[in-house]
User: What shape does this take?
Amino acid sequence: MLLGKLIHRQTRSRLRYRKQVHLHAAKDLKRRFIMLAMVVAVHSIAMVYFEDLDWWQAFWLTMTSASTTGYGDLSAATFWGQFATIVLIYGMGITLLAQIASDYVEIRIMRKEMKIKGRLEWSDMQDHLLIINTPSTNTERYLSLMVQQICNTPGLDDVPIQILTPKFPEGLPETLRAKGVVHHTGDATSPGMLNNAGVANAKYIVVLSPDSLNAHSDSLVFDTLHRIQEIGTKAFILAEAIDDANRQRFREAGAKAVIRPIRAYPEMLVRSIVAPGTEQVLEDLFRYQGDHTVRINVSLYDVRWADVVTQLIQRDMGTAIGFEDTMGNIVTHPKSSEHISLNALILLIGEDQVTPTSAEVKALLAPKN
Assistant: This one.
């Protein structure tokens, strides 16, 4: 753990150093632009007074000389005009222009590197989906599946995606960058990181649990939610909770939806964003407590699906959500008017309902002669 903290501290120091270098280079470029503008202005004035040119001709001569184009349509003829050109343009202007070009290319390269390695601030990003934290295991696969699902979901397919995580200090995997995903390298609980990621301007915020097997992750998620609440945002916030006892605390801290970490199915998380409330229904399908699904082995022939559903609901025997046909195929949500034959029914049973027996279901649904 000590080694991990040391590496994290060194990484943060390198990030601060790179940002300082970038800011220093930008200031140098701005200063040289100002100096070049002053040289151009002074030389243009000199050409007006020494060469008897109008202001446009003076400026034209200055720029063609500084850029070493030299069309030859105008040139300094007097001693003082030539002297001013030698000192101001040949001695200063051309050098400054070369330095500006060099600085510009350097800043572009540095900015590209910072973008790849997540060292740029995205505080001006608007209406984006911000993913905070990343799973500790199978990170790339999970994020790839999640981003793919987001891109395939109507309403989310054109939303910019940003990830705030310390996981990729050397850059996002190509599979994510190819989908237009950007990231900011940092810990959400560090001062200023959420602002750098544009939390206030986000449309959706997903706070993932860093370690789905460690209950301490709930503390990190809660801390992140509290920091987001302090900043203020109108975003729809979804958070992962390992312990069900923390769900209410997360909602009080600003989460509109809370879901358990289910790493094999990021689709569930995406559905929770576009259809809030479905996360509770989907979670119930994975456990026996509360509403749960059961299989009733019963053979029925030539029955109408609408009759199956309504008869079961009216007798408080559960909700039919699918069936196994006589070929062994599982069918979900058939048309209500469809006549079916089946070997088994898939029912959603409420927490307070008693699971019906096969005989009860057959007696209720079997066609009467």
Summary: The first helix runs from residue 2 to 51. The chain is about 50% helix and 15% strand.
